[in-house]
Design goal:
- This protein is α/β, with parallel strands linked by helices.
- The chain folds into 2 domains: 204 residues, Spore Coat Polysaccharide Biosynthesis Protein SpsA, Chain A, CATH 3.90.550; 156 residues, 2-C-methyl-D-erythritol 2,4-cyclodiphosphate synthase (60s Ribosomal Protein L30, Chain: A), CATH 3.30.1330.
- The chain has 11 helices and 19 strands.
- Strands 1, 4, 5, 6, 7, 10, 11 and 12 form an 8-stranded mixed beta sheet that branches. A 5-stranded mixed beta sheet has the order 16-13-19-17-18. The protein has a two-stranded antiparallel ribbon with strand order 2-3.
- The radius of gyration is 31 Å and the shape is elongated.
- It binds zinc ion (ZN).
- The site of zinc ion has 5 residues, from β13 and α7.
């Protein structure tokens, strides 16, 4: 095992963030660079791992194992790569892998595949096909490129150390990757299929993680004679209806409160107080502006779980109708809504059919 792994982490990444270089950005549970560090260690393929960076102070604070060296990088990527080659020469490496710290998503399997292919080749480079169609511009003319023949090169790229060193030391121009050096001299490269998930992080948007929130809602209304019963926005035939300033629809009120809870926007009473304006208001009218705001703020609903607590009416009899109505009201697929009926063993007001209660849990996600 005479393999050496170089992680290039000297870039300033101005397109990413004004203050933090992307390789040191905290993504999920660690800094982006540490995905490459950990995978290269865990692959057990490397004698030494060399990080080339312009933020020595920050990296030296980390307690990396002894097999990791950290050195100062150059201005351009190709400068840093050459600095790494010059530094490693004294160890007389047989093979060298060069990797951009901005690609945290490669797999150890890819490392092993590259290593295996390097046994019979002097240069191994993973590539993927483009998802977009590609045009090529020469002066003012634009040409179509056959997408199936356009190779997008990724890192890690691996080489016989000696060959790469000799090419890099001669090169006077800045190059984007080590494969370029080989291609310029018409040296053979073994291209292997890379990994679609092994994308390069360029913009902050590339790693934005959707945020999920939960909200809870509860409501109870007294049942009274001579009133229509509304549940989930539809009229249900029953001996009584729900008393209230509005139509008393406990399901819609609990949903509204759950949404307000998940988005930290207080409660339904804040928006619909018991004033003349809202006297006898139908509950879909209360829910609609709240749901519109939710979608306008780029939230989407993952699921809605409802407990309707009453002796009667039987929930099973109206379940489909109620779910159908809620689905239309909040523009959510029926299979994302669950409605459970819960009786209370004839206990208390609810047990004596004098009230109906409802509780709701909602899960929502924001993607921007
Ligand atoms: Zn209510």
């Amino acid at each position: 095992m005479n393999n050496y792994f170089v992680i290039l982490a000297a870039g300033k990444s101005k397109r990413f963030h004004k203050d933090i270089a992307k390789q040191f950005y905290y993504f999920k549970n660690k800094e982006i660079i540490d995905y490459s560090v950990e995978k290269s260690i865990n692959s057990k393929l490397f004698k030494k791992i060399l990080i080339v960076t312009n933020n020595l102070k920050h990296l030296k604070k980390k307690r990396y194992p002894k097999s990791i060296s950290i050195i100062k990088g150059g201005k351009e990527r190709s400068d840093s790569s050459l600095i790494a080659l010059k530094f490693l020469r004294k160890y007389k490496p047989k093979n060298i892998f060069i990797h951009d710290a901005a690609r945290p998503n490669f797999s150890i399997r890819l490392l092993k595949k590259i290593s295996k292919n390097l046994k019979k080749n002097t240069a191994v480079v993973p590539t993927v096909l483009s998802k977009d169609s590609i045009k090529y511009k020469i002066k003012d003319q634009v040409f179509n490129l056959d997408r199936k023949k356009a190779l997008l090169t990724q890192t890690p790229q691996a080489f016989r150390f000696k060959e790469l060193y000799n090419l890099a030391i001669k090169e006077k121009n800045k190059v984007n990757d080590e494969a370029t050096l080989f291609l310029k001299e018409n040296y053979k490269i073994k291209f292997i299929s890379g990994e679609n998930q092994n994308t390069k992080i360029t913009y902050l948007e590339d790693i934005k993680i959707p945020k999920t929130y939960f909200g809870i809602g509860f409501d109870i209304h007294r049942l009274v004679k001579n009133k229509n019963l509304y549940l989930g926005g539809i009229k249900i035939p029953f001996h009584s209806g729900l008393e209230g300033h509005s139509d008393g629809d406990v399901i819609l009120h609990a949903i509204t409160d759950a949404i307000l809870g998940a988005t930290k926007k207080k409660d339904i009473g804040t928006y619909f107080p018991n004033t003349k304006t809202f006297k006898n208001i139908r509950s879909p009218k209360m829910l609609r502006p709240i749901i519109n705001n939710l979608y306008k703020s780029n939230f989407s609903i993952n699921n809605l779980d409802i407990n309707l607590i009453c002796e009667k009416p039987k929930v099973s009899k109206y379940r489909d109708k109620i779910i159908n109505s809620i689905s239309k009201l909040i523009n959510l697929k029926k299979n994302q809504i669950n409605l459970k009926g819960k009786t209370v063993e004839k206990l208390g007001l609810i047990g004596k059919e004098k009230a109906i209660a409802c509780e709701v849990i909602i899960s929502i996600t924001k993607y921007d």
